[in-house]
Design brief:
Largest interface: A-B, 98 and 98 residues
Radius of gyration of chain A: 24 Å
Number of strands of chain A: 12
Oligomer: homodimer
Largest sheet of chain A: 8 strands, mixed
Structural class of chain A: alpha+beta
Distance between the termini of chain A: 45 Å
């Protein structure tokens, strides 16, 4: 039995020392984010995770959601847990106080989101989606729309869902066919959407669907898509709920994981057409979506961090408990717990060091996001935004790949028990496996990094980051040879991406995935090395933690960072071999 | 929809050119293994795989096995498929003609086993276990036992099961508690065994359990364990079936994958004690088990090869079919299938090149096994046996890790559909995931390699293999720089293992897992490079295949072999950091 505990020590360390919480608390509107308040928030969130969400995680997976006559029932206890969640105000943390939000930094809700996803990823998806929908509405919705929907979504009294995918339009949103026709001031929506997370459920009386659709006569492709608010239940003028809108859940999917979260097929407008309200202007739906997507991608990246942490905790508890074999060189017959065996130690260090590295990077980017939004010095804000843009696909893809890898190692530590569902280790893998796919596959993230974030700007921001990492290393008390080599490798690969993207974008993109991993381990490695320098300088403040961090960083340097050279070669020498391969030879 | 087709072209290429089929056919008793006959066997086996086993794979997974009142029912169609399988004589291929076997080389049944596991891994486990049990009996059983059981097991009229694991004795067999007490000429067995694959099922009237148990007064630990034949149904003197033995299946496990294969909890001797027949001598059970284990480990390694092939075929079919996005640089709105996208090409090449590499290694070792058993020149036989001993843990662990990795990439190629169970991609992953665990976890394999196969003999065989690879490279028409570097890295790491094992075995074993991977990619890479040289010399014989092999080998060299340096550093510099880490810091 493993009980999830929020890793408050590492979370607070990263918030304070790596992600810039103290500076962010000086930004306008963020005065409440003091060290004490943040520590108290993490503590309370941890309790909710441990006491309420974690106990429902395995039962939710095995029970799953049911679908009957258009009605979705979530597993036993989820509805009550959701009520407790919104009663505690957890849904509203990063949102605008004008609409009932708490106006806390994104960085702080990053930490609490990690807790929800670690304790119960299926549950955590509901606030994740509602948050994305609320953000879209905040940024682009009219005051009229906001006044009807936003406060309820921020409080969590109503949830939100994101309706992008259709059977023929997954990664390729240009192929969306759902229609929106004018009807007075509003629109009538008709079409089918698939893979709609929490598209239907029993938590709340209303669900606010954000739906991408085409208006008649608009441009073809990606530039002819608009965004609509389509509520499950129409809202009367006095704010009370009225008639059901013309939309329904047709079925839910039978998935590999996140089984406690319903993934709906949604049918809009089978009869008179579902009433939809335009967000912003026609044909700008994709553009609006992109403003929200960065945060959603960071949020999915966090799922990777979270599952990795949870899988690590479970594996560590098992390794300490499971007695098997003797210590090497011990001639007595005394059985030891498997945590004593060198390869089990190695696996645990692999799990923890990678988890800490992706956490450091995710929080670092979240901190930059707050600076980008609030800093009064526009140069500082711009630089932070450039780092956010560059690193968001890295957080999304690298963290979720790490989530899968760490959960996979967690199964291995359990041996045969790892393959038995009741143990719980397999669920972490099955849950983690969606994160590299949704919110833009990790291949799409890598393309975004190589093409939009590096290629199109000639690598300016990437080189700025490389310089900053070099300068930071040079200022350190110790030298870090593996880290320096990784930065050199990243620089070579970046130069190659910049040059190649200009003359041969196809080949540049063939190198995108190994390039993204190289950037992930290098920037993550840099934050790990920085962490080590800090805990060694402040040993009094972090007495036990310093040794643990040393163990993590040492592992990361000698196992993970040593991949850097090979990855750079894969990028610079391998990519052309992909492009040259004929389809018949695949 | 993807239909499995046995990859006959690559299989036959590897059999003929890499694994030494022509030489093996000259060994005594193997005269039937001519090129034509082997090609015909592969073709017929492929038909059974495609027409009978593959169509039951997904339905078997979703239906699963049921357990009621001690009776296990396998999914619809499995019993009939098994009958067809044994009627075709497929169970008896590598066994002694004296007991009804066909006496074909192990190498040939290696290829057919790949087909069974690829088409339906849950099904393939039944002959795998029966084969292991039959081999134990052939090698160590008395003539009396053989005359009662062996022919029926070789034909498949009865199946076999291996009963090692108990709740407290997984990797650590020294902790076995199951008891065997004398009762006249025989024994009475009592105890609980878990994780017994096909421990109970509805394919056949009898199941021959091979059970490890302790006799009273024997030594403690691993040296006090004996091996028994314990039939489900007792056999009368005339060979007819008699009374039920005192054993039963108490339950079957709810697993992550291989759901169509029952994994039983077995209870022996709840009443008067189950009648068991000693195999060989008392207290030598573990020793006997080890003689069989090499083959079983190769067989599990093959499961990795097989699932990788199946996952590749499914992903390739999907990538060709799924239209999404435009070709890079194409300004038209024309949608292309995703196989055109560079990262999808890369993923497919990653899947296929790794699959071909693990196949080459597995068949190469199987070929050596035949030489070891049959070669009349004892030096040749000894050398072959030494290579088999060295490389068996590598085949088991590396191939099964590759199986998991390739199946994981297969999910990714499917995007959102990969996470939906009906697609079938997720099943390959879930099935593949057991193979790194059972038959000795991959960590145990790595320990076996580093300690028993390298450390204890001072690296003699490993160095012989390294010399052979170097000489082979030097004799090639082209130079292969990445391959040479990988061999150098393997040599450095081998020297380190040899030196360190002597003075500090714990640290040596901390490096075992990355060392095993390094050996896998290096030896597998060498066989890939050899393959390339051969197809280029014999382009007329392998016209299309030569280009495909070039694409695979190029990928393997630039992506997989470039890991070698980093792995060597992890071994030689990382291992001490594992040993130095205190338990409190894990």
């Amino acid at each position: 039995m493993s009980v999830y505990r929020a890793p408050a020590e590492d979370m607070l360390f990263v918030l304070e020392e790596i992600a810039g919480r103290p500076d962010i608390a000086t930004l306008p509107g963020f005065e409440d984010a003091s060290a004490d308040i943040v520590a108290a928030i993490i503590e309370e969130a941890g309790k909710l995770g441990t006491d309420v969400l974690d106990p429902l995680n395995q039962s939710g997976d095995s029970e799953g959601c049911t679908f009957e006559n258009g009605v979705v029932r979530t597993p036993t206890g989820f509805k009550e847990a959701y009520q407790q969640f919104i009663d505690g105000g957890w849904n509203s943390m990063p949102f605008d106080p004008e609409y009932g939000g708490q106006g806390l930094p994104w960085l702080i809700s990053t930490a609490t989101s990690e807790i929800w996803h670690a304790a119960n990823m299926s549950f955590g998806l509901c606030p994740l989606l509602t948050g994305g929908a609320a953000e879209l509405l905040s940024e682009h919705g009219s005051d009229a729309l906001k006044s009807v929907y936003l406060e309820k979504m921020i409080s969590g009294v109503w949830t939100g869902s994101m309706n992008l995918t259709e059977p023929h339009a997954g990664s390729d949103l240009a192929r969306i066919r759902t229609k929106a026709t004018h009807d007075g001031d509003n629109y009538r929506i008709s079409g089918q959407k698939i893979f709609i997370t929490y598209g239907e459920h029993d938590f709340t009386d209303n669900i606010v669907h954000m739906v991408l659709a085409r208006t008649p006569g608009g441009p073809e492709g990606i530039k002819g898509i608009s965004l609509f608010v389509v509520p499950k239940v129409l809202v009367n003028e006095d704010g009370s709920l009225g008639a059901r809108n013309d939309l329904r859940c047709a079925s839910i999917e039978h998935k590999m994981g996140i089984n406690a979260s319903p993934t709906a097929v949604m049918l809009y407008g089978e009869n008179e057409g579902a009433i939809g309200y335009l967000v912003g202007e026609e044909n700008r739906g994709i553009e609006y979506m992109f403003t929200m997507m960065n945060n959603a991608r960071l949020a999915v990246g966090l799922e990777g961090v979270a599952i990795a942490e949870r899988a690590y905790q479970r594996a560590r508890a098992f390794a300490e408990d499971r007695a098997q074999g003797r210590a090497i060189g011990d001639k007595s017959q005394e059985v030891v717990s498997i945590i004593h065996h060198p390869d089990v130690k190695r696996m645990l260090l692999s799990m923890r060091s990678q988890t800490e590295a992706v956490r450091a990077l995710a929080y670092y980017v979240a901190g930059n996001l707050d600076v980008a939004h609030r800093h009064e010095n526009s140069d500082a804000a711009k630089k932070a935004q450039a780092f956010v843009d560059l690193l968001t696909p890295v957080v999304k893809a690298w963290s979720t790949d790490v989530g899968v890898d760490v959960a996979n190692t967690g199964i291995q530590i359990h041996g045969g028990m790892g393959f038995i569902e009741e143990t719980g280790a397999a669920q972490h893998f099955r849950d983690a496996r969606i994160a590299p796919i949704y919110e833009g596959t990790n291949g799409i993230q890598a393309n975004d990094l190589a093409a939009r974030k590096i290629g199109r700007e000639g690598g300016v921001t990437a080189k700025q980051l490389i310089s900053e990492m070099r300068a930071s290393l040079e200022s350190m008390a110790s030298s870090h040879a593996r880290m320096s080599s990784a930065i050199d490798a990243l620089e070579r690969a970046t130069d190659w991406i910049v040059e190649t993207y200009e003359k041969d974008p196809e080949t540049a993109l063939a190198g995108a995935v190994p390039y993204l991993r190289l950037m992930g381990i290098t920037v993550g490695g840099w934050l790990m090395v920085r962490s080590l320098e800090i805990v060694q300088q402040k040993r009094d403040q972090y007495p036990d933690f310093a040794d643990r961090k040393l163990a993590s960083v040492r592992y990361f340097a000698r196992y993970t960072l040593t991949e850097a050279e090979g990855l750079a070669i894969a990028v610079t020498e391998g990519s052309s071999s992909i492009t040259q391969t004929a389809l018949k030879d695949l």
